Amino acid sequence: MIDQDQRDLYGFFRKAGRFLYDYTGGKSGQRRVLMFLDRGVSSQRDLQNKMQIKASSLSEMLSKMEKEGLIVKQRSKEDSRQILITLTPKGKKYSDAAKKDLDDITEKLYVCLSAQERKELHELLEKLLMHWDALKDDDEFKLLVERSRVND
Question: Average pLDDT, whole number, for the chain?
Fold first, then answer.
């Protein structure tokens, strides 16, 4: 049986997720792509896996970004089935600006916590997210989630 603290935690995570979505960029897909690509060339498949989105959604986003001159797509010389994505100089400039903006936002978000509190929160969230990641393969958890969706 769960207690009120556990119910509150669930509510806090929902509120936190909603706040971050509403106030720090919503569907910030292009920004995420730019920041991933700032680390170097990536295949479209690797980008899809990192971002955890559908291939069709990523393909549409990349096409728009290519038209805007932010990225270049080209087939791999080693494996013609792979499409490699690279930032253009314009894309690099946008990526740098996006990183700075995100750093500024992040600093504002956590200013109310001390360095020690941020460290503790980091450790706890890392532990929790590892557990949640394992739940993706837990059949009992999947059934619970499915059952809860039917009752919505």
Answer: 91
